[in-house]
Amino acid sequence: MDFISPTEIKRIASKYGFVFKKGLGQNFLSSQSVLEEIAMAAEIENEGVIEIGPGFGVLTNELAKRAKKVVALEIDDRLIPVLADTLGEYDNVKVINQDVLKADIEKLIDDEFNGEKVSVAANLPYYITTPIITALIEGGLPLKNLVVMVQKEVADRITATPGTKNYGAISVLCQYYTEPELVCTVGANLFIPPPKVDSAVVKMVFRNTPAVSVRDEKMFFKTVKAAFSQRRKTLLNCLASNFTHTKAELIELMESVGIEPTRRGETLSLD
Ligand code: SAM
Q1: H helix or E strand, kind and range, residue 129
Q2: pLDDT of residue 6
Q3: How far is the CA of 54 from the centre of ligand 1 (A)?
């Protein structure tokens, strides 16, 4: 099936009178090689995969060729008849008309995949990048790989190393639960319509256990958030404005674990 070319995407849009909704992040991918890279990175041969936002089904098509089963969640009901048409040849694809942010993914994995580990692949709608990634990563779900197209700057933050300008709370969150890597960068011209920013595909491989052992995850992430709350301030000042401890108490605590209070949050590794 070839419905990836710009001409074909435009033909389908015109056949169904489909008008792209910017508010739903509808920038459809028209690059066969990038679609294949996403599907291959997901490593889903004979396994289950969830897709977020199938659009006209271009990525779904690549996933369906490889996976045992694909479940795709699409919020826009105008796309359901289009998908029935473009994916009609597959009997291993199920499209659900649902907002991914309202979906109970744990129940979906139980119901559709017998609770077995699955991967998630998506050309994400950019307006919900952070809530989706956070929900999938923190959710304690049986997930193997998360392969997503995001804005290039988000990919840079997810994969950033300590001490660099892109390193922040989302880097720590993603690197704590997964091993992230950049798969490829993708120019805006490969989408219809083209978004305003360049994009990149990142692959996050879920760790069996978090990268570091922490006693209290809630407190850990509260501290991380506080550490990055004011980029130009020292760690001591950031913590002092987010916790009720006195500065003297914080200095004592930091010195007891060998962290200079004058350091900045972004210099701290996960360890
Ligand atoms: N996968 C297609 C592709 O690569 O060409 C479309 C990707 S497009 C960037 C994002 C898709 O996500 C659109 O089809 C859009 O309607 C859908 N979408 C937007 N918000 C959503 C949500 N909250 N839940 C599920 N799908 C959503």
Answers
A1: helix 129-138
A2: 85
A3: 6
Q: Quote the pLDDT of residue 30.
A: 93
User: Would you say the CB of residue 101 lies under 6 angstroms from ligand 1?
Assistant: yes
Beta carbon of 13 within 6 Å of any ligand 1 atom: no
Please report the atom of ligand 1 found closest to the CA of residue 122.
1
pLDDT at 2: 56
Global pTM value: 0.95
Q: Which of 192, 186, 191, 193 is nearest to 38 (CA)?
A: 186
CA distance 196 to 3: 24
DSSP 13: H
133 DSSP 8-state letter: H
Q: Which residue has tokens 């991380």?
A: 224
Question: Ligand 1 within 6 A of 54 CB?
Answer: yes
> What pLDDT score was predicted for residue 231?
83
Could you tell me if 223 and 239 are in contact, meaning their C-beta atoms sit under 8 angstroms apart? yes
Closest atom of ligand 1 relative to the 26 alpha carbon: 8
Compute, in angstroms, the gap from residue 109 CA to the centroid of ligand 1: 20
Q: How many helices (H) and strands (E) does the chain have?
A: 11, 9
| Cα 25 to Cα 129, 204, 213, 267, distances in angstroms | 10, 22, 37, 34
Token representation of residue 228: 């990055």
Q: How far apart are the first and last CA of the chain?
A: 48
Distance 125 CA to ligand 1 centre (A): 5
